[in-house]
User: What shape does this take?
Amino acid sequence: MAGAAPQGASAGSDIYRGNGPRLLLPVWLWVGIFLVAPVLIMAVYSVLTKEFRGGVIWDFTLAAYDQFFLDRGLFGDEPPRIEWTYIGIFWRSIWQAGLATVLCLLIGFPTAWFIATRPARVRSVWLFLITIPYWVNLLIRTVSMKFLIRDTGPLNEFLLWAGIIDTPLALVNTNFAVQLGLFYSYLPFMVLPIYAAVERYDFSLSEAAADLYADSWTTLRLIILPVVKPGIVAGCILVFVPSLGAFLAPELLGGAKTFMIGSLIEEQFKGAAGNWPFGAAASMILLSIVMAVLLLHARAQTKGDRT
Amino acid sequence: MTDLRHFTGFRPLTVLCLFILYAPLVIVAVYSFNESTSITRWGGFSLKWYVDVFTGPEAPKFRDAAINSFTIAIGAATCATLIATAAAVAMTRAGRFRGKLASLALINLPLMVPEIVTAVASLVFFITIGLTTGLLTIFLAHVVFCIPFAYLPISARMQSVPDVYEQAAMDLYATPWEAFRLILLPLMAPGILSGFLLAFIISLDDFLITNFVKGAGVETLPTAIFGSVKQGIKPNIMAISTLLLGVSVVCVTLSWLIGRAGQKR
Amino acid sequence: MLDVAQAVEIDSVVKRYGTVTALHGVSMAIAEGEFFTLLGPSGCGKTTLLRCIAGFEQVSGGAIRLHGEDIAPLPPHKRMVNTVFQNYALFPHMTVLDNVTFGLLRRGWGTRDAEARGREVLRLVQLSEFAQRRPGQLSGGQQQRVALARALAPRPKVLLLDEPLSALDLKLRQAVRSELKSIQRETGIAFVFVTHDQEEALTMSDRIAVMSAGHVQQVGPPREIYEAPQTRFVADFIGETNLIDVTVTQVSGAVARLQLPGGAAMDCPAAPGARPGPGHLSVRPERLSLCAAGQGDLAAVMQDHVYLGTDTQLLMRLADGARLVVRQQAGSGTVPDPGAALGLRIEAGAARLLAD
Ligand SMILES: Nc1ncnc2c1ncn2[C@@H]1O[C@H](COP(=O)(O)OP(=O)(O)OP(=O)(O)O)[C@@H](O)[C@H]1O
Ligand SMILES: [Mg+2]
Assistant: This one.
């Protein structure tokens, strides 16, 4: 044991030292060529001129960004005012994604906690039950949700039958439905990282707190939440980021009033109404928001490490 | 003596959470066995929609889509697993070198870029370089986002295998390649298999990116289902969904069993 | 030194980890067929030195020669050196026989020859019946012997053993000691054995190197290490000893004349490097005996005693306040009362002046 300690403690082994760059070459090439380069090209597309019926003309212009942020009237000759349409869509998307994140946290934390505190044998069964939906096709899950809450779907049938309502609830095409869809889509992403953090939580900390007269909710607030915070933050990011750019939930469960970023971008690349530079510009703006969130997180994390 | 792990209300919330996650799936699975053509009234048990999936008028479309989906998923998962394994060796066993942190960021980049952005970027990229969209482009794009999912279980497993075994092998005259092939690879096989399965499911799952890069005429199961759902949810879609659900459950179960077997050793 | 072939020569080896220096110019030579032990407290660099010989660490300075050949540029798999790892590192996915033949196959042996040799070595460690088992199905002692067999099979020029017995319980450890020693004699391979258990070192070794903080303190046969320690560290680390402050008046060759606390003068053997001036005298507790006050070499006051079964430890204080321990065999005299003034006699030839 004594001899194993210093070796185990040193971060990472180096028995294949010198081979690192060579082994990473495939990742660099693949992700570099098929993700980084495409994003850069997309950035270029966002400053090109649109071709009607899709595609671009290689003339540089900031028209796409101009269209996103500024309203110059129907013929483009009025003094520019701020264009609220797209900012509004972005804002609503951020709000929806944020709400979904909060809801997922409110249900996901107790769930993760409950599972992580089960006896070891039962725990793996609970965990298994939570993981299955994570592996199930997102499209299928969203379609199933739509099926469930349709005007004539099983949910309404049941409520009518039980006498709770007299007329079917019009759930589909509402913000509520989209919200439910987002929540339902990304809930497993919240549970798993929190579970991992709670599993590592040292319960003698709770004992110490209880010993020092903290009741269980005080312990939760002052000890447990701060200690498992990295898991919570990771879960929130894993829910927020995909919710923000979500396409399936708003597309299938929502309607024109619940339009989100994903649909806005997708529309630019479909059919005659398409405007590729505008779609690329909206993608760039979405990407910038997400990167800003991730950078903030990374900054907070390194700061946390230093203290 | 109160249980410090116990919080009132957490158990009902967990049950609620599972209920929300499972209710739609279970209901769709149940209704896929519905005799009635009306998708809301229960008309007795029947397998006719499954028969319809395999022999009905839409059967060729879904069969082609399924073949495409599975071919791409197997290819992309294999490719991503190879790349991720090499990367995991570099990250966990090659000591320190320049660009290590940047590499980790790069491996995880596909998780950080929103799917819709990746979809748009892939489309404009393939068009710019003049690659006609189709199966090949779907494969190329799928490998990208499969890499981080394959990397996760593989590197976790590799970290949990101490390197003394490979040291012992090298001490017994194994070259680094032999130490990797004869010792590390078999010891971390469960991690590799889990990584493969996860990547496989993720590829099978993808709708958005596929929809952008697939081009006209090529369909995978999700795009075919999506196209069909736009005109309303038909019972045969529920049957296909239930079948895909089964594939997912089999994969998770496999991965779970593999993980448990790995732990016991 | 006798003119025997050297299996390993370690020549001023320095090993640094960043700012930490684990080995400060360590030199030693290990003879062909020798059971050589590295002994020292935790963190003194024993494992580091072994890993340098095996090739898992690159030395920062100095040279390591195997049968005269500098092996610094060779990776581990090209060194004819094998290691018995502390926790054995048996390949869990292979059978015992596959573990043992692993090195042979890497050296290019044919499958059949390798298997024959593997069975031969398993016979040597009395594990023939276990050839087809997995390591997980063996007891700790059996695993230890498989690890030994695996390392011996390719007939390395040197075998390195890093605390191979530390994972075994006390009873088993004692049994394995003699077995290990006899296997070593039988095979004639030089063993470099690491331990921080001095009893293990003293009972098994042909020679011992005592290390401390990355330095070699003394190299010699067990008896010499125990009876003729050269430095305070060695005297203190090996067994129990009393270090008495003395004034050295004269050193001539290996004999010194010195003045004990209290003024008595005596002649005693001196370690090489001892110098006139203040110094330290090492006397083992069992080689001090009690006598009446005013007699003997030292004057002491009884403080306390500790009963240890086979003998009793008497704790004393000299006039200058220094503590002293005397070991009295059970039944050889009465324990003095606390506070009693006594004389202490140093057995002839028992005291030794250290080089500090
Ligand atoms: N990889 C490393 N990085 C930095 N320092 C190290 C490393 N390995 C060992 N050291 C340091 O080198 C010194 C010698 O370590 P080594 O493992 O050789 O001690 P040891 O004599 O084998 O001790 P033990 O009896 O506890 O096994 C220690 O101070 C240790 O902290
Ligand atoms: Mg050690």
